[in-house]
């Protein structure tokens, strides 16, 4: 057995020792040949609702379960909030190494990541044009770690580096680039592996699919759930779901699963750009969730150029909740502008275009133009906006698709080649959406022009009909 599988077996033995139950119909499998790390695979047919494994709440790596929670005042954790608190706890457990209660679990968690936070500059350059680059936030995370986490570690140096006479110096060293990188790694683990853990006595009501509403979700504490986080995901191929019970968290099959099939969790309907940012991989199955954003700034830039920029109108739109930093264009099937283009973007464009007296009327009545009644003028401006957005990419769709863009999951490519290919897949996804919007808008403008031509002809023919007074 190689060390990878030895670590898997040691982890499973540790997991059972915590009181967890694991069905003998599943295995933790080495999927490195598919560039997917470990994954859970069915070894026998599994029925719908069957229990795959259950993990006692006491085995979760959470703030409350860590010894650190009894060593540091609760107010400190309250001040840090759930995200930074869990990073702190994970750092503490990581620093404790083999003596941590979760050591065999840490041994199977990755220490290298493919998420965008860890890409080299030349790899990130391949995503030029995609607004996902603005969401990585490495500098602000560094600041946050230095401002919030390092002072806590310094204050409780004796707890963090208990028994080490260099405790104080080691705490000082936590602001070093190497230790900030360790904090990024803990943060990345949380981003890609942690669950929002519903408390045992939760009064929150999950809907029939097990989801709680977004607001409630935000308030839930984050926790690492050993084994549940070994499930990979592939868009709508999910076939298992985690249930929050009083003593245990239980992973159950949501559909019958055949022997040999991989067991997938649901990471949500993420566009490939966000999947890459948070999880460091993409598959074609996520293409259906792709989005491309039109930045608000691009619209104001174009509006200024066309001399339709109007601060009072933007202020009114802001009051009405229409102003945002960007507006999404997504896929729809069959493709329609109404389904794919953010209605707020159409409202925004229409409001900038309406004549002054019409704007005053709308404002008086606290109304907005109706996005489903898009005018030709708005479609023309939207088309220009889509073209301007398309030109923000360094390459064209044709250039991107000319060469083989497939993300090779067979593992023959180097890491850099795979990252380049994944970036290309993201770019293509976004450009395809822009291209579809462009085609639909051109068609809309053409249809409208034919419609108005036909109307004019009809009016003329009616005028010319016998019995009607002839034009002189
Ligand atoms: C929650 S973990 C799943 C377990 C992980 N495979 C491991 O070995 O630790 C999420 C990570 O698994 C990988 N992953 C999940 N689904 C994948 C898929 N369909 N293809 C490739 N990698 C995947 C990504 O690296 C992702 O960040």
UniProtKB/TrEMBL annotation:
Q: Which SUPFAM superfamilies match?
A: RuBisCo LSMT C-terminal, substrate-binding domain (SSF81822), SET domain (SSF82199)
Instruction: Please state where this protein is localized.
Output: Nucleus
Q: Name one GO biological process term.
A: methylation
- Among its keywords, does the record have Transferase? yes
Q: Does the keyword Nucleus apply?
A: yes
Summarizing the function annotation, the protein's role is: S-adenosyl-L-methionine-dependent protein-lysine N-methyltransferase that monomethylates 60S ribosomal protein L42.
**Can you tell which superkingdom this protein's organism belongs to?**
Eukaryota
Q: Which UniProt keywords apply?
A: Methyltransferase, Nucleus, S-adenosyl-L-methionine, Transferase
- What is the name listed in the Swiss-Prot or TrEMBL entry for this protein? Ribosomal lysine N-methyltransferase 4
What family does the entry list? Belongs to the class V-like SAM-binding methyltransferase superfamily. Histone-lysine methyltransferase family. SETD6 subfamily.
Span list, region Disordered: 446-472
Task: Give EC number(s), comma-separated.
Answer: 2.1.1.-
Q: Which GO terms describe its cellular component?
A: nucleus
Pfam families referenced in this protein's UniProt entry, alphabetically: Rubis-subs-bind (PF09273), SET (PF00856)
SET domain segment(s): 24-268
Q: Which GO terms describe its molecular function?
A: protein-lysine N-methyltransferase activity
């Amino acid at each position: 057995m190689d060390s990878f599988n030895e670590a898997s077996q040691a982890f499973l033995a540790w997991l059972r020792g915590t009181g967890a139950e694991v069905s003998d119909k599943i295995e933790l499998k080495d999927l490195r040949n598919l560039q997917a790390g470990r994954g859970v695979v069915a070894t026998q047919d599994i029925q719908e609702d069957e229990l795959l494994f259950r993990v006692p709440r006491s085995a979760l790596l959470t703030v409350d379960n860590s010894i650190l929670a009894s060593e540091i005042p609760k107010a400190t954790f309250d001040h840090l909030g759930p995200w930074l608190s869990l990073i702190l706890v994970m750092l503490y457990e990581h620093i404790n190494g083999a003596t941590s209660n979760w050591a065999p679990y840490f041994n199977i968690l990755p220490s290298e990541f493919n998420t965008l936070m860890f890409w080299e500059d030349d790899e990130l350059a391949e995503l030029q044009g995609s607004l996902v680059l603005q969401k990585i936030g490495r500098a602000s995370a560094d600041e946050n770690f230095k401002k919030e986490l390092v002072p806590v570690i310094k204050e409780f140096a004796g707890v963090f580096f208990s028994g080490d006479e260099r405790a104080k110096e080691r705490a000082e060293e936590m602001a070093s680039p190497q230790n900030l990188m360790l904090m990024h790694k803990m943060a990345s683990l949380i981003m890609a592996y942690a669950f929002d853990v519903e408390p045992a006595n939760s009064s929150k009501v999950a809907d029939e699919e097990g989801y709680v509403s977004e607001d409630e979700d935000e308030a839930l504490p984050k926790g690492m759930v050993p084994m549940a986080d070994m499930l990979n995901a592939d868009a709508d191929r999910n076939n298992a779901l985690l249930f929050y019970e009083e003593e245990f968290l239980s992973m159950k099959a949501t559909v019958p699963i055949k022997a040999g099939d991989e067991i997938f969790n649901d990471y949500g309907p993420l566009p490939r750009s966000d999947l890459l940012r948070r999880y460091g991989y993409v598959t074609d199955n996520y293409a259906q969730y792709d989005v491309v954003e039109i930045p608000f700034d691009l619209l104001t830039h174009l509006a200024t150029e066309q001399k339709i920029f109007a601060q009072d109108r933007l202020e009114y739109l802001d009051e009405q909740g229409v102003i945002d930093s960007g507006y999404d264009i997504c896929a729809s099937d069959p493709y329609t502008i109404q389904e794919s283009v953010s209605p707020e973007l159409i409202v925004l464009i229409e409001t900038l275009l309406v004549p002054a007296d019409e704007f005053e009327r709308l404002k008086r009545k606290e109304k907005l133009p109706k996005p489903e009644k898009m005018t030709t003028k708005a479609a023309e401006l939207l088309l220009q906006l889509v073209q301007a957005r398309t030109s923000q990419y360094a390459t064209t769709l044709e250039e991107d698709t000319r060469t083989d863009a497939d993300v090779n999951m067979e593992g023959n490519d180097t890491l850099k080649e795979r990252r380049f290919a994944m970036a290309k897949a993201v770019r293509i996804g976004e450009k395809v959406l822009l291209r579809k919007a462009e085609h639909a808008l051109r068609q809309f403008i053409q249809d409208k022009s034919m419609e108005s031509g036909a109307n004019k002809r009809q009016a003329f023919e009616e005028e010319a009909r016998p019995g009607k007074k002839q034009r002189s």
